[in-house]
Amino acid sequence: MRKNSFLWAAAALLLASCASPNPGPEPTAEAPPAPQACPAEVPASARCYGGRDSNGAYYQIAIPVGWDHGVLVVHAHGGPDLDQNSPRRVAADLKRWAITVKAGHAWVGTSYRRDGYGWTEAAEDVEHSRQIFVRQFGAPRRTILHGQSYGGGVAAKAAEIATAAGARRYDGVLLTNGMLGGGTRYLEFRFDLRVVYQQVCRNHPRPDEPQYPLWMGLPAESKMTLAELTARVNECTGVRLPAAQRSERQKTNLADIVNTIHIREDYLVRHMEQSTWLFRNLTQSVLGGRSPFDNTAVTYRGSSNDGAMNAAVLRYAADPIAVQALASDSAPSGRVNTPVLTLHAIDDPTAFVELESAYREVVRNAGNGERLVQVFTDEHDHSYLSDPEYPAAFTALLDWIDNGRKPTPQKLLDLCLGYEATFGKGCHIQPAYQPAPLEGRVAVRPR
């Protein structure tokens, strides 16, 4: 990965925003998709193809029997992972979202060209995968852009890039359990976790180890493993032990951390993993050794002694260049020219449901509130919702596109219940639910 490539990309994006909208150049010539065996999860009658595009991203395509240029779903996957650019990544995505093909829609997904953070590049890779599909198999009647998790933010960015270009590349957008506040707003709670964890536990790093600013995640030369990090977190909090086996100190430490950061204890290690290695990727490999995080004016609440916490917690000021670069790359503008439907689990342990409030505010401020419908479920997982909810969301979105019938949460629930006979039980939609503001979940910062 090139040092500071992300900063160059952000600068290019800022320059492009001043230019006349255009769809950009077509990808360079590349080999057509090659036939591949479909995963077992995909209907046996489907056809699958794959390859590697001219930017280095892997992609996979699945076309159901009898498709006849109907609906294409362009998928933006979650993460970001540090080992995602491989054929295994797209194969796993197709397995997970085989429900799309079972519902009669064609599917194309990309691995993204590089590992780690890079929302705009990933959005370009998503669009590139759509172009590959259309060149090989022809234009579909409708194209739906679907993003899950990190891919929700990527898909939101891809839709905004298409709008800025004056292009109608996607007829509608579905964002499920999306990281929708942009990189800075989504990641701030993990930065808070690092400083609060260190104040409570003081073992990442330990006092006798080389010290470093916590926003960098981990020194570049560190050989720490996930097993070692897990052992340190467990040593301090007992989170890997049954509650009855935790010491009183561990119980207090764990409560102080999860109550201040508002996360589930079963996801503590996962979030610490992300705020260690992914922070290293973001700040060192992507932002050139700069930090986008600032807690100089943050007041932390929820511990057993907030006064002591706020008096002693480590404080860091953000680098303005890093702040601007990350915002330019990932923050949504709300400028979209297509219907957008979001579906989000209320107890999502990774992408807090309150991010939907932040996204709604952005879209409304851009004058596009009528193009957004948000629906919520009482599920507790992040990486996948239930099988019948996805075809229900596709159907509702297509009806909105084709007939102008803007869906309601109740309509989505009714559609979902109707799909249970085909795709199994699993309708968890709560039509009356509305999320609280993000500021009620993540420590408030001056904007």
Question: How would you describe the overall organization of this protein?
Answer:
The protein has about 450 residues and is of the alpha/beta class. The chain has two domains: about 30-180 and about 335-440, Rossmann fold; about 185-325, no CATH class. It is about 40% helix and about 10% strand. It is built from 14 helices and nine strands. Strands 1-2-3-5-4-6-7-8-9 form a nine-stranded mixed beta sheet, sandwiched between helices. The chain is globular and about 65 Å long. The model is unreliable at about 1-25 (pLDDT under 50).
CATH top level class name of the largest domain? Alpha Beta
Helix content: 40-55%
**CATH superfamily name of the largest domain?**
Alpha/Beta hydrolase fold, catalytic domain
SSE sequence, one letter per element: HEEEEHHEHEHEHHHHHHEHEHH
Strand order of the largest sheet: 1-2-3-5-4-6-7-8-9
Beta-strand fraction estimate: 5-15%
The number of domains: 2
* Distance between the first and last residues' Cα: 31 Å
Give the oligomeric state.
Answer: single chain
- Classify the secondary structure makeup into a structural class: alpha/beta
Average pLDDT score: 92
Number of helices: 14
| Sheet with most strands | 9 strands, mixed
Shape: globular
CATH topology of the largest domain: Rossmann fold
Radius of gyration: 22 Å
CATH architecture of the largest domain: 3-Layer(aba) Sandwich
